[in-house]
Write a structure and sequence with these properties.
- This protein is of the alpha+beta class.
- It has two domains: 2-137, no CATH class; 166-258, no CATH class.
- The chain is built from five helices and 15 strands.
- The protein has helices at residues 18-35, 64-71, 105-115, 136-140, 166-175; strands at 2-5, 8-11, 41-45, 48-55, 58-62, 82-83, 85-87, 90-91, 94-95, 181-186, 192-198, 228-233, 238-243, 247-252, 255-258.
- Strands 13-12-11-10-14-15 form a six-stranded antiparallel β-sheet, covered by helices on one side. It has a five-stranded antiparallel β-sheet with strand order 3-4-5-7-8, with no helix packed on it.
- Strand 10 and strand 11 form a beta hairpin.
- Helix 1 runs parallel beside helix 3 and helix 2 runs antiparallel to helix 3.
- The longest helix is centred in the first third of the chain and has 18 residues, at 18-35.
- The protein is elongated.
């Protein structure tokens, strides 16, 4: 299929979702509108179109068609979720911080065009990998980088889910030692995980052909200090930890215990 855009023609092997194409075309028209009254210029080298601007003797190039190709699932020389931008003819490696929903690459190009549309742009909004375009005064005015907070294991969940009492979970496990059970718990990243597991040592029957030979011994910390318990993951044939303070459902000894937050 052939699609005409403000920056050239895009040819795809199959038809593109109409709504997706409309969104991409809308973003490209936005780019074209921004060009009309800013410091950016359109440059053509062979079949490639770039939008260029020199800022403090640093050449910045944006590639709207590359962005459109990524949005349409086509192969591009830029990595997914990265802005198709060069700084002094090299990839500037600018990545979006937005994860859900993912922004269109073409929208990212339009946003960067708008950000750098005039000489008095907001220096604090410039990605770290592009700080060479800033003057010494602009760099000195930047706020100090935020210190990364240390990770503290075992913190209470902030997901709002309901969990089974940890004491009840520990009691059930102690009453059914070395018995296979199904458990659903919230991982530290907030996702729910289902696991078929059992307590006890990993045996040769549990291990798959590619499973690493690990014993579970010699850990540098006590899992119980962080509301964790080491079990054997029956599907992977490896030791894993379950979060005993974040269990939403468990089936053990022929009975199922669950909260309203359990996922079927």
């Amino acid at each position: 299929m052939i699609y005409e855009t403000p920056f050239g023609i895009i040819t795809t092997e199959s038809e593109v979702d109409p709504n997706r194409m409309k969104a991409v075309q809308r973003a490209l028209r936005w780019c074209e509108t921004i060009l009309e009254s800013t410091l950016w210029t359109r440059c053509t080298e062979g079949s490639e179109i770039s939008l260029q601007q020199t800022i403090n003797q640093q050449l910045v190039e944006l590639f709207p068609l590359e962005a459109a190709m990524m949005d349409l699932g086509m192969k591009s020389r830029f990595s997914s979720n990265h802005l198709p931008i060069h700084l002094n003819r090299s990839n500037a490696c600018v990545r979006t911080m937005q994860h859900q929903p993912r922004a269109l690459h073409t929208d990212l190009v339009a946003s960067m065009l708008l950000l750098l549309s005039c000489s008095n742009f907001n220096a604090s909004a410039i990605p770290r990998t592009m700080h060479s375009i800033l003057t010494s005064e602009q760099r000195s005015s930047l706020p100090p980088p935020a210190r990364r907070q240390p990770y503290v294991a075992g913190r209470p969940s902030t997901s709002g889910r309901d969990f089974l009492p940890e004491l009840e979970i520990m009691k059930l496990l102690s009453q059914h030692h070395n018995v296979i059970f199904d458990i659903q718990f919230e991982m530290r990243n907030g996702n729910l995980r289902d696991m078929r597991a059992r307590e006890g040592m990993l045996t040769e029957e549990d291990e798959g052909e590619t499973s690493p030979q690990i014993s579970g011994a010699g850990m540098s910390y006590d899992p119980s200090d962080y509301h964790l318990k080491t079990v054997v993951d029956m599907e992977r044939g490896q030791y894993r930890c379950i979060a005993t303070d974040r269990v939403t459902k468990v089936t053990i000894g022929g009975n199922t215990y669950r909260t309203t937050s359990a996922r079927d």
